[in-house]
Each structure stands twice: as C-alpha cells, then as structure tokens.
Design brief:
two-stranded antiparallel ribbon, 65% helix, mainly alpha
C-alpha cells in the first residue's frame, strides 16, 4: 500500500513537470482540448458550481491552504520524535504532490486554453494597420460612441452584481458559433469572493475561478461597468485565456447585447 502511494505521488509530480517542460502543441490543444474536451468539462463544472451560492474557488483555495498547513504541522511534529531529515523530506514530497495536483487540475479544467493558437491567427489580421493614427482614431470613435449611447444605456438599466443578462448570454452564443465553438458556453452566475479585499486593493474588476469555472466579480463595480466586465469574464469561460482575446470576444458580444451593454463596452474601451 505504501509503495502504491509512492508510485501515485511520483506519477503526479512527473506528469506535472513533463507538461510544464514540454507542453502540448497549439494544434493539438485546439483540436482535442479547446474544441472537444474543454466544452464538455466547462458545461459540467459550471453547471455544478452554479448550484452553490458561494464561490467554490474560495473553498478550494481554503482547502489547499489547510492541507498544506496540515502537511507541515505533521512533518514538524514527526521530526521532533524521529529522524528530522526523513520527516522533512516527506513533508517536501507531500507538498510537491499537492502542488502537482493543483497544477494538473488547473490545466485540465481551464489552463490549457493558454496554449491555443492566438486569436489573430483565426482572423484576417494585418499588423501593419496598427499605427498611432489608427489607435487615436479608435479612441476618438470610442469616446463618440460612449457619448451617443449614454442616454439609451442608462434608460435601459444595468444589471445588478449577481445578474446574468439574457441578451448578453444570447450575444455571447452568437459570437461563439461564428468562431466555431461546438457547443454554447454554460454561463456562470456572477458571485462574490473572499478575495474581494484583494480585488479592491489591486483594482481587479473580476476573474474566472479556474477550478470550478466560476465568474467572480468585484462588488464595487458600478452599473455601467458590469456588462463589459461580465462579457470579458464569460469570454474567458468560453475558452479565451489571454486578456486581449477575452476583451475582443467580450466586446463583440456586448455590442450585440442591447443599449446598456453597448454603452458599457464603449465606456470600457475609453477607460
């Protein structure tokens, strides 16, 4: 039994090291993970986490921390009774196993999306068109659109911090179909997190909880900010890991989701 445990731990650590040093190719990730496995995992994990009123991401982080503390309390106590070096080595081995489990869980549930081909490789993208004049023109256009959509956006009303606007969900699904996602994303009901003080201190608007594929928002977001941030986080949930890719997909979705979301995304682009 002890030997079997050692083999399992070694396998987990070696698997984590192997994936970190030799990650799978972008083509394989796109075909087998992003287009097949991830949509299945996403629909099931998010459906599960939506049943919980609290963020399961918080629960997971707390559990990891308690396990790590327990490992070292056990190792230090054992070191006082027996051979110190062997006990500390066991603590290090247990810590390495825990880290490997967390890393592999992260990769399997969402993290491999970072290895997908960049979004610009799927679009008619001409890098030479990105010039200072083009950026200035975009900024001026965003300001103009934010001003013009202000009245209609406020008249339509903005979602509360825990709302999942149906029009934004439908718009996201439209964009996903156009980009070839095999099934629609099961959107995550926005939740608050125990990490809210960190969000406030660091200026974070929200994040995706990768272990159970949840959407966590900063409760300090104003009404006009919420649709754009929610569209961005749901784009992460759809499998677009880089911030730039999620912002682009979120923008496309928000522009189709009605006056409030349209105003929100132009305001976000201005800021």
């Amino acid at each position: 039994m002890k030997r079997k445990s050692v083999i399992i731990r070694a396998t987990l650590v070696l698997a984590a090291v192997a994936v970190a040093l030799a990650p799978p190719g972008a083509g394989s990730v796109e075909r087998w993970y992003a287009r097949w496995l991830y949509p299945i995992l996403q629909s099931n994990l998010t459906a599960l986490s939506n049943r919980s009123p609290i963020a399961l991401f918080d629960v997971a982080i707390a559990a990891f921390a308690l396990i790590l503390i327990g490992i070292w309390i056990w190792s230090i106590r054992l070191a006082r009774k027996k051979q110190a070096m062997r006990s500390l080595a066991r603590g290090l081995a247990a810590t390495a196993t825990l880290v490997a489990v967390i890393y592999l869980w992260f990769l399997a549930s969402w993290g491999l999306n970072y290895a997908r081909p960049p979004l610009e490789s799927q679009l008619a993208f001409d890098r030479s068109r990105i010039t200072p004049d083009a950026v200035r023109a975009l900024a001026e256009h965003a300001v103009d659109r934010a001003n013009k959509t202000y009245t209609a956006g406020h008249a339509a009303g903005f979602p509360t911090i825990t709302d999942a606007p149906p029009r934004l969900i439908d718009a996201l699904h439209q964009v996903e179909r156009e980009f070839g996602r095999p099934r629609a994303t099961i959107v995550a009901v926005p939740k608050r997190s125990l990490f809210t003080p960190f969000y406030r201190a660091s200026g974070v608007s929200g994040q995706l909880g990768p272990f159970f594929l949840e959407t966590l928002l900063n409760p300090d977001l104003t009404g006009p900010e919420r649709p754009a941030v929610l569209a961005h986080e749901w784009a992460h949930l759809s499998g677009y890991a880089p911030e730039s890719d999620a912002s682009f997909i979120g923008l496309l979705a928000a522009l189709r989701a009605g006056p409030a979301a349209e105003y929100s995304v132009w305001l976000d682009l201005v800021s």
